[in-house]
Amino acid sequence: MKSTALTRKEFIRNSALALAGATFIPGMLFAENQHNAVHQALLSGYQGKKSYTLKNVLLETGFEYDGDGNVTATKTGLFSIQIANGKIKNISTNSNSVDAIDAKGLLMLPSFKDMHIHLDKTYYGDKWQAVRRGPGGVKGMIALEQKILPELLKNSTHKAEKLIELLQSKGTAFARSHVNIEPTSKLDSLHHLQLALENKKNGFGAELVAFPQHGVFYTDSVPYLKEAAKTNIDFIGGVDPFSIDGAIEKTMDFTVQLALDNNKGIDIHLHESGESGLKTVEYLINKVNENPVLKGKTYLSHCFVLGRLEKAKQQEMAEKLGAAQIGIVSTIPFGGLIMPIPMLMENNVKVMTGNDSIVDHWNTFGTGSVLQKANLAAQVYGQATEYALSRMLKLATAGPTPLDDKGNMQWPKVGDSADIAFLDASCSAEAISRISPVKSLIYQGNLVF
């Protein structure tokens, strides 16, 4: 008789998946950013300054090793950081200057990036509404969205601004936002979000994806996508070409060509986990290899099919994605599906994460924290050592970590953009493991809070 007992790793993994939503406190959803009033008053004089110095800044300086070469701890030290014109101008031994901002020993990390979110259509900042499920699956949800979009658009700029403030409070100063482009809202969602981003430009940056949520051809989104592609958006998006539009090749060919014609990247939502999902991935890999200009600027969001493949096929696809420089943006967790994120990383696939929906008609469990996403990934994949935890930070930052894999300091460097989060933690590993609180945020040298 086969044992049904769970291993410790399986128990932790399943618990993380089950509790991802349960750890969220609904009562906190619409709370304003909780900043310390006294601290804010002290720092207000520095906001808007082009040049200033931070002292008592905790930076990671290396790893400590045992006799077998295993990382046992992270070395740190206190430094002074000079910021000027949005850049890090100097890094020096710690100073006691009375003119410097006292970071009080807080850990300095690269500010976080939410690389998959929908800032343009949210309930956040408005009255609470739970998800409404109707018949017809995704197409049924499209019909619902067509019905509610006109009302959502009435105050979408305000709600986007409130959502940006939530992200900032979690240490995020940059996002990749998908923006609805379809016959119902036309380009209104885009214009409303652009206004919100303009209002928040001193504390937040973004890149935008023209997203045909209602299909490219299922609803006639083609003319609106072509119009959006001529604006300053960054990516051409897409969603499940087979199940929504009924044809992989036709939809993917249009998407790729539109990106090529307008010098844009590509970011496709792919939820399909069967044969059509695999065919879509393979077709996109071939198109990118045929058009090398798309390498490094093409992404698959979700891409759940990778979690359904046998291990040998997963390895093959990871190698092909890595060679084509196609990234995966994974919205951790994934219900009962375990994505091969470590395997993807090992094969040089750029893996990033995001909150997707914070609270909207698709989902209500987003917290706004990509640090929490990195924590969940660490639990799911058993990344519990000092070294392994520190490596998971790249999910929250979309790449940068203070130390490289050999423990050499690689961030911050003089000349880096001053995009900084300060956390109440002793090192990256603790920040990931404890989801340490964010105490301050700087974006391009601007003191956000």
UniProtKB/TrEMBL annotation:
Q: Where is the Amidohydrolase domain?
A: 225-449
Alphabetized, the UniProt keywords read:
Hydrolase
Membrane-spanning parts: none
InterPro entries associated with the record: Amidohydro_3 (IPR013108), Metal-dep_hydrolase_composite (IPR011059), Metal_Hydrolase (IPR032466), Metallo-hydrolase_Enzymes (IPR052349)
Task: List, in alphabetical order, the Gene Ontology terms for molecular function in this entry.
Answer: hydrolase activity, acting on carbon-nitrogen (but not peptide) bonds, in cyclic amidines
Q: Which residues form a coiled coil?
A: none
> Which CDD domains does UniProt cross-reference here?
Bact_CD
User: Which PANTHER family does UniProt cross-reference here?
Assistant: BLL3847 PROTEIN, CYTOSINE DEAMINASE
- What's this protein's name? Amidohydrolase family protein
Organism, by scientific name, is: Sphingobacterium paramultivorum
